[in-house]
């Protein structure tokens, strides 16, 4: 029976791939209560999950299709609503701040679109494991796949708003230089933080369901504490305290290259520091509580 099971894999030339995956996959099934090997199992989870990123991408795309099933515009409804919000807020607050629309609208467009991307990723990170309850209970997939699925889904949805930035820049005559390439590492930092938070908040909120609404309220508070609608220069001397706000630091890594010629060094240092902290916390929780997630969801 063992030979019959392996025979189709030999014919398809996949014996080597199967054998290579066995040492990693075995970490999901062999459990010794006396020697749980939490660190090794967590590493195997991350390595296997990253190797199967195509599965996470397929699940993320399926989530988007199911969410907008029957819709004519699909995710582009978000683009339409964001454009309407930019126009309304731009006209109103440019008058309140005594700025011209051409001067204020590019800042607002980049800030609001990137903030919506960050906020949506953080909010949905709280349900990254709870939404995958059926899969977690039925299939021995790495938990990393569910975190990647959450991050990729929000990245695909957020990408629908990026053309609005190009449109606003063209209308306002804003043409960034070569420093615009620094926005790519900024977007990568957002993705890495989204992945780490999907692991961290996914586990915490699977255990304590009240944390999710609290995170939503905190994001609403930080929307007003972060220079999104208003400009950092309005704080005057207190603007030096802005890097203490993690959302400002992450936001500035994308907005700085597009608007301010690359952003400040302190913002990049703060963003990298917060990213390291997120990754460290996510790794610590994954090692310590990975075996309990299936019971919490």
Quick recap of the structure?
This protein is mainly alpha-helical. The protein has helices at residues 2-11, 15-25, 38-51, 53-67, 76-96, 101-125, 133-138, 143-159, 162-172, 183-207, 211-225, 246-259, 265-289, 293-296. Helix 6 packs antiparallel against helix 8.
- Give the strand content: under 5%
First-residue to last-residue Cα separation? 36 Å
Tally of separate helices: 14
Biggest sheet descriptor: none
Whole-angstrom Rg: 22 Å
Helix-strand makeup class: mainly alpha
Order of helices and strands: HHHHHHHHHHHHHH
Give start-end ranges of low-pLDDT stretches: 1-27
- Please state the overall shape, judged from the principal axes of the Cα atoms: globular
Number of domains: 1
Number of strands: 0
Keywords:
0% strand; 14 helices; mainly alpha; 297 residues; disordered N terminus; single chain
Task: Give a description of the structure.
The chain has 297 residues and is mainly α. It has one domain. The chain is 72% helix and 0% strand. The longest helix has 25 residues.
């Amino acid at each position: 029976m063992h030979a019959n099971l392996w025979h189709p894999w030999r014919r398809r030339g996949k014996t080597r791939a199967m054998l290579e995956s066995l040492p990693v996959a075995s970490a999901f099934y062999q459990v010794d209560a006396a020697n749980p090997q939490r660190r090794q199992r967590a590493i195997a989870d991350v390595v296997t999950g990253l190797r199967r990123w195509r599965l996470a991408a397929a699940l993320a795309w399926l989530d988007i299709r199911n969410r907008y099933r029957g819709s004519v515009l699909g995710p582009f409804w978000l683009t339409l609503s964001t454009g309407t919000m930019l126009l309304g807020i731009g006209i109103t607050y440019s008058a309140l701040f005594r700025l011209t629309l051409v001067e204020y609208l590019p800042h607002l467009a980049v800030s609001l679109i990137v903030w919506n991307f960050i906020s949506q990723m953080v909010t949905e990170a709280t349900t990254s494991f709870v939404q995958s309850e059926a899969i977690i209970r039925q299939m021995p997939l790495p938990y990393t796949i569910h975190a990647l699925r959450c991050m990729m889904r929000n990245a695909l949805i957020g990408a629908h708003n990026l053309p609005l930035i190009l449109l606003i820049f063209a209308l306002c005559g804003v043409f960034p230089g070569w420093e615009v390439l620094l926005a790519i590492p900024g977007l990568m930092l957002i993705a890495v933080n989204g992945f780490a938070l999907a692991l961290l908040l996914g586990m915490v909120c699977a255990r304590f369901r009240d944390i999710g609404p609290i995170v939503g309220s905190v994001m609403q508070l930080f929307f007003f504490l972060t220079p999104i609608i208003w400009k950092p220069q309005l704080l005057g001397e207190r603007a030096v305290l802005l890097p203490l706000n993690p959302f400002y630091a992450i936001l500035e890594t994308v907005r700085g290259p597009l608007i301010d010629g690359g952003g400040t060094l302190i913002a990049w240092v703060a963003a990298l520091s917060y990213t390291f902290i997120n990754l460290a916390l996510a790794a610590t929780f994954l090692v310590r509580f990975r075996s309990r997630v299936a019971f919490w969801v």
